[in-house]
Every structure is written in C-alpha cells, then in structure tokens.
Amino acid sequence: MASIEDELLLRQLPHSVEAEQAVLGSILFDVRCVPEVVDQLKPNDFYIQQNRDIYEVIYELFNYAKTIDAVSILEGMRKNGTYQDQVSYHYLLQLLDATPTASNVKEYIAIVKDKTLLRQVAETAGEISALVQQGTETGQMVLDVAEQKFHDIREGRTYRGLIPIASVMIDVYDRLNELALSDSDIPGLPTGLVDLDRAISGLNKSDLILLAARPGMGKTSMALNILLKAGKTSGKTVAFFSLEMSREQLAMRLISSECFVDNKNLMTGNLSEEEWLKISDAVDSLNNTKILIDDDSSVTVADIKAKCRPIKDLGLIVIDYLQLMQSAGGKSNSSENRQQAVSEISRALKLMAKDLNVPVLCLSQLSRANESRSDKRPMLSDLRESGAIEQDADIVMFLYREGYYDRDSATPNLAECIIAKNRHGETRTVQLQWMPEYTAFDNIDWKHSEY
Fold it and tell me: Among 164, 234, 327, 431, which residue carries the largest CB count within 10 Å?
C-alpha cells in the first residue's frame, strides 16, 4: 500500500527538479548561455518555487543588461524578498556543483519546456473535466472551449494576463515599420474597389466586416469580387463559406467575374469560340489562386473555426450569410430565441476574427423596414435580428442600387456602398459600377474597352 508521501508525489504536476537545476547551474557556470535560456524559458516554466525565484532575478538582470553572477543574484533575491539567510547561498553553490558544464544547456531547456507543456495539458484537461461535471454547457460548447484551449497551448498563448504597454509598443513599432516598407498605401487586403479601399483601409486583420443588403442587391457578387481580388493579389489562402449556393454555382460566378463572359451564356452553355478561350484563361487563373470553397448549409462558427485553423497563411474568411447560420445550440424557432442566437453568432464571429487574426467578411440580410420609407437607403436599424451585430462589427457596409427600385432611373447600374460604421475612419458613401451581365462590381470609372 502506497504511503501518504508517495501519493502526494503522484499528485504533483509533471516537472524535473534535475533539469531545472541544470539550467540554473549552466547560467552560473557560463553566463554566455543566458540569452539562449531567456529566449526559450519564462519564470513560470520553473515548477519548483525556489528555482523560479532565482530565475526571476536572472530574467530581470538580463532585461536591464546588468551583470549576472552569484552575488548579483543574491542581491536581487534580497530586493524581491525571496532571499533566505544561508539557505539561498548554499543552494547556489549546490547548483554549481551539480552542473559540471554548460554545454548541454539546450537539452536541459528542452526537458523543462516539455514538462511545462505536460503541466498545461494536465491543467486544461482538468478544466474541461470540471466544465463537463458542472453540466451547464452543451457538448458542442465544451468541445469548442476544449479546442480553443488546446490550440492556445500549441500556439504558446496560454498566458493572457496583463502585460506592460512597452511590450505592446514593440509589436506596434514592428507593424508600422512593415507598413512603411510596403508598396501599398492601404494596410489591409485589397478589395479591388479603389475608393472602398481608401475609405476602410482595406480588409484588416481581426476585423469583422458586415456587408448587408436586401435580396437581389448583389451581396454575394460583391463578396465574390472581393474574394477573387484578395485570392489573386495577396498570395494568401482565402476561404468562402456558402450556406445558400452550391460550389458549382459559386465557381460559375467566379469565372464570369474573371473573364467578363455574360453569366447567362455560362448558364446555358451558349458560348462563342472567343468566349471559350476567355473561360479557359479564367480557369487557369483561378487554378493558380488559393481559394477554398465550402457549401455546407449547416455550418456553425465553431465548424468554420475548426476548418480554418489548420490553414497556413490564411488571409480572409467570407461567409454567405449570417442569418442562415446555426448557433452552437442548434436551430431556434421563436423570434426571441433566434435574435439571441444571431447575436451569439455575431459575437462568435468577432472572436474568431480576433483569434485567427484574419478579416472576416460576413454577409447579412436586411429587414423590410426600408421598403416603407421614401428614401430606401438602408440604415443600421434595418439589420435583421440585429441584436449585437452592429456592436460586434468593426465595419458595416450596405449595398444600394436605385435602379433596383426605379427601372426608369437615369443611372440603373450605379451602385452605392454605404459605410454606416467604420472603426478605422469616417462613414461615407462610395459609388460603384454594377455590371449585371457579369454579376460583378467595379470602380465607377470602369470601361469595357479597357479590358
């Protein structure tokens, strides 16, 4: 029968006393290995409190470019209140005696990091188990939480506490330097619509962009235009999730937009020899992009996140459209429950954009409220089952075409992209050219002869 001491040892989280001591001993033996250690290990990687106290002092001394030796370490421990008379001094001597050389410090670091990883896995497994035992969340919700936590461990993002502003400034400075060296005058992915790019600064990382309009205004067409432009020019992978149209229909629309062949001719197959050549070139061009299409009509935000997370160099996610999505809890029939579900979906979309660090362009339907007004241009209050949609979105854009309501309009193919919310700048209206035969939008000065 195991003793109480043995049982307590078994309950301890994974760690290696010898490896932790060997890392500290290597530093004392040869201070030249400090940069390598500091680059790989943080104080929380040390499980034994005494070892962590010593490493915190070393870490601080290194950050302030101060001398690192036994004397300075002991003095630092006195300032931190972790120094114990005689005990700390003798422990440093013990570390030196236990480490004859610093040449194996890489192996010692690897062991300490592996034990940290095992502790994180054990802690996360415990948290998930406790969540299951509570019985307050659905299985899908628990699965989503588990996936997120284990992904954070894999990406080294488990610690999300308060950090000094100086650390953030380093990232900001690097971003500014990256923008300064860039040839583009917009920081985000281009939409291909020049005036729109200038207004919203392109599609920026972690942004949730909402594109809303009444049926028939061209939401999907504009989304596909943006997808095509981003896929062709950014070199990144772009993903389109369609809950309404099949992948074959989407491919047809992309081909039409790419080669300027009348969409009706594509649908009927009534194509001239010249049009066949254009289609062949368009297919070759599309094959060279990294555009991914998913037409699962029952997809959830958790599904999208799970599908997109493994994608390397992901640049953009497009979703068509919000009201067709299911919440993690499944379908909701009542209007009150549906409004709550849509609000949860919009919040989850914003969190996904932030977590994956990519722009998420989501299409949305509008209510019929604008139909009863003399000026039928959409407003934020027209968002269907809006809830928190307008609050979660960084940018809200509406599509409006006067020619849709007035067939005798002098400008039937003039479209307006109304930027009703913009966290990166002003709200304004951008004029676009609607090309119905190609189901595509272009800049207002577009001329067919230029192509």
Answer: 327
